[in-house]
Amino acid sequence: MELTGPDLKWPAVLVIGTVVALGMAYAVYRLMSRRQARASAAVANSSALTELPEFRRALRRHRIRMVVLASSAALLGGAALVGAARPLDTTVDRPQTRNRDIMLCLDISGSMAAYDATLVSTFTSLVKRFEGERIGLVIFNSSAATVFPLTDDYDFINTELGSAGRALTGDPAYDSFFAGTFNGRGTSLIGDGLATCLSSFDKVDTQRARSVVFATDNHLAGRPIITLGEAAELAKAKGVRVYGLNPEEDGPDEEATTMRTVVTGTGGQYFAMSDQSAIKGIVDSVEAQEATLIDSASRSLYSDDPTLPITLAGIGLVGVIGATRRWSS
């Protein structure tokens, strides 16, 4: 943020008020001058009175009180005008957003049923580690469905992940979570799922780093429209790195080896869910990508700052009361 200094919301009030005040002061001055001219009269031998020390001290005190009264009244009126014009502090905010997009891609086929809830919990942990990145979620089985697109609304993301966790633990109230994932032939069509995740990104943007966190055991059961290898080539073309997360219940198998080869070929990394450092490894790998920030559009922020006019008005009021006290006593 950059503080640009004080400002007035309604500067015209100050200008118009000053002109009116000066006009009234001039009118009062002319009126008092005329009255003084009409009321003045010659008094013989008055010099003996005006030369007295007591008279001179009284006259000096009177003049001082008049100066204090006039100054205090001007200060009070000026402060009131400034306050009416609404003094503001203006701050220019130049927000920055992190330039990373991360799609969470979840295989919800039968072979993954025992791991799905754990995977959602894993994703929740991943999201807690991010700040400013845009996150999206796609689930797939015989077809893929977007749960939510890329967004940086973390309250919304956490709500959706909470609903996913309930659905994946068998809560019938959340059966609609799986809508759109059984529209094809077969199950666990890995390539189609990854391709759908990749299509969720915007058009090519060299300023944003792009990653897919891809959770699957790579056990294909059906004929996908796009093979895993073809989806990997699409990831390369889009500049997307794929980070694989595999349960590996019985250790690495042929599918796991293939998945490792595919994801590392995109510039990403492969992790087993049993690896305690998997979460930290994915986050560190994603954060190691393009770390620059993107400047968003500048915006001006205004906040009322009445401290100065209130203080000056208080000083002026004290001066007016002090100067007029003698006449009121």
UniProtKB/TrEMBL annotation:
Alphabetical list of InterPro entries matching this protein: VWF_A, vWFA_dom_sf
Transmembrane helix keyword on record: yes
Top-rank taxon: Bacteria
Protein name, per record: VWA domain-containing protein
Pfam families according to UniProt: VWA
Keywords linked to the UniProt accession: Membrane, Transmembrane, Transmembrane helix
Transmembrane segments: 12-29, 66-85
Domain called VWFA: residue spans: 101-286
Keyword Membrane: yes
Protein source organism: Terrabacter carboxydivorans
